[in-house]
Design a protein that fits this description.
Blueprint lengths: L4 E6 L8 H10 L6 E7 L1 H8 L3 H5 L1 E5 L10 H7 L4 H10 L5 E4 L3 H12 L9 E8 L2 E6 L9 H19 L5 E5 L10 H12 L6 E6 L11 E3 L2 H26 L3 H21 L7 E4 L4 E4 L6 H16 L2 H10 L15 H13 L1
Parallel strand pairs: 1-2, 1-4, 2-3, 4-11, 6-9, 7-8, 7-9
Antiparallel strand pairs: 5-6, 5-10, 10-11
Helix pairs in contact: 1-11, 4-6, 5-6, 7-8, 7-12
Length: 364
Amino acid sequence: MTAALTIALDAMGGDHAPEMVVKGAAAILPRFPQVRFILFGDAGQVEPLLRRFPALQEKCDLRHTNEKVASDDKPSQALRRGKNTSMRLAIDSVASGEADAIISAGNTGALMAMAKFVLRTLPGIERPAIASFFPTMKGETVLLDLGANVECDARNLVQFAVMGANLAHSALGRHRPRVGLLNVGVEDVKGHDEVRAAAEILRAVENPPFEFVGFVEGNDITLGETDVIVTDGFTGNVALKTAEGTAKLMASLLKAAFQRSVFTKIGYLFANAGLTMLKDRMDPRFYNGGVLLGLNGITVKSHGGTDEVGFAAALEVAIDMAQDRLIERIKADFSGAFADSLSGRPAGLTEATQETQESSARVL
């Protein structure tokens, strides 16, 4: 029998909260009846919504607070003034052990700052990373970092590889994930010093819990030959936004093409089933859920503008990670195969870069 889980929800985070939060939780419940929820938010707004879903209401513990983190709050402001916000209280419930994971569609910077401050990073991990899922020709792949760390040294990249492999195991069911480092070429001599140093570390590890396939290029991301693609936050964020923009461009061009004449409109009627399948395959709501990896607690960031379908997808990610005991798996890797590889001074890191990273960490 599957163990019971408790998920903390920031009911006030997101453009369409709290309605999409409640509807998303209600949508996921039939598939995961063992899950209970703690909702943190304005009872005056949340309680009427819960009454519309009796089965969900029985599984929920509503904790009232009329404070929330605004979308334009700076992370430092949220840390200083947000102790009684729905986001902070939800994170606190994970830190205390009352909840197994927290999900919020609220302010990303505030969530990262609060979660890192309250939950702390796991032993052996210097920087948390944002990871998410990317559609490919063969299913999905994990891509990280997506913006948490603009500059990374070799040791950071190796840590991201370990964490990403564990996420692929938990959420995608890949028992020995294939991991690649994003680079400007597949040859060993190409790329920044940090990327090449990370590759050397990964190749030297004995009996790693994943298969390191070496360097991959940008056009390899969608092929599905790797389960995890690792890069720094600057490159990862650009890659993600470029892909999102390309998807919108293709949708716009297809729409314009089918509206050119009566004949193309008739052609659309015949192609409608295939186009609907394509639309569903590329629907970003089904890939919703950015995971803040490296923290001592499962933290999932839902897209702020999503609806209940997208929020339910993010919930499923959190449930999968909790069921697979992701935190314990990562801890085991960093106390085992990678303990010696990551000891000492970070490879490929200059004094200036190290000072920049330490300063960034203090600000966060």
